[in-house]
Amino acid sequence: MNLNQRALQLCQALLDDAQTVRAKVSTSPGGGTIIDLGIDTPGGLEAGRRMAEICLAGLGQVSFSPSSLDFWDGPRVTVATDHPVAACMASQYAGWKLAVGKFFAMGSGPMRAAAGKEAVFERIGCTETTDAVVGVLESRQVPPPDVLEMIARECGVQPAAVTLLLAPTASQAGTVQIVARSIETALHKLLELGFDLARVESGWGAAPLPPVARDDLAAIGRTNDAILYGGEVTLWVRGDDASLEAISPRVPSSASPDHGRPFREIFERYDRDFYRVDPHLFSPAKVTLANLDTGNWFHFGETMPEVLEQSFAS
């Protein structure tokens, strides 16, 4: 499977429906396509849903379902995939630090597999050669041409063959596509714990979709809290039960000493430096590992509606 080609097909469908999903499409001066889903255009729920599926390289389905929280009548974002490692770790994971001049953003999407420079690819494989790439940026700024030129150079394509989708955190589309990362956070936590992700066959996840925050800092808090304190993930795996029983208690966000307070409060305590926050905090509230070989399942973690209510109200 060529992840970028799959994503490009979804991008073309998005371009065909640009007016309907309230997207703004432009060409970068140096070549390349910019799809704005929330900076200079309203975007919306459908824009965010499609953005999330493109970020998964078309290997996952994103939808909305009723909330399971008493205090929040809004929807939750659900994700399902039968290709969790390729969809989530090789594509959706925001693992590429794009820093050119004064521009900085974390890059997601299948362009990461074409670049293949991150350490994660040494463990999961999934790199690819392609003639066009797709990326997703959580940004309030349209990247200048030299950013697209750098991406093109690292991916081995021409700048005109780069497509970037953009949305700020504090936007409808941005909020949706971030909350759609429940499975990805569980897989990344397992990887950090030394688990062999080749054992994971399928994944399902859900997390409440918070109200769009007034600014990006508040939105970072709400979207992280949605997964840390409201996210529920089930992974279908193969292999022995003993390793699953041993690792399961360490996977949910509650395994971190930073767990228990709204993320914005934690973020401020560490001077807004993500890299000082305990990396083991970033995982869903509840995780279930279901063994396809034995029929047994292991469940740990609990949601914390009281923290979510505080977060969504701030």
Describe the model.
The protein is α+β, with helices and mostly antiparallel strands and 314 residues long. It has one domain (3-313): Methenyltetrahydromethanopterin Cyclohydrolase, Chain A, domain 2 (2-Layer Sandwich). The chain is built from 13 helices and twelve strands. The strands form two sheets. Strands 1-2-8-7-6-5 form a six-stranded mixed sheet, sandwiched between helices. Strands 3-4-9-10-11-12 form a six-stranded mixed sheet. Helix 4 crosses helix 9, helix 10 packs across helix 12 and helix 10 runs antiparallel to helix 13. It is globular and about 55 Å long. The model has no long low-confidence stretch (mean pLDDT 96).
Architecture blueprint of SSEs:
Elements: H1 3-16, H2 18-21, E1 24-27, E2 33-36, H3 45-55, E3 61-66, E4 75-81, H4 84-92, E5 96-100, E6 103-108, H5 111-115, H6 120-124, E7 133-138, H7 145-155, E8 162-167, H8 172-179, H9 182-192, E9 200-208, H10 216-230, E10 232-237, H11 241-247, H12 263-269, E11 286-291, E12 297-300, H13 305-313
Parallel strand pairs: 2-8, 7-8, 10-11
Antiparallel strand pairs: 1-2, 3-4, 4-9, 5-6, 6-7, 9-10, 11-12
Helix pairs in contact: 1-3, 3-8, 4-9, 10-12, 10-13
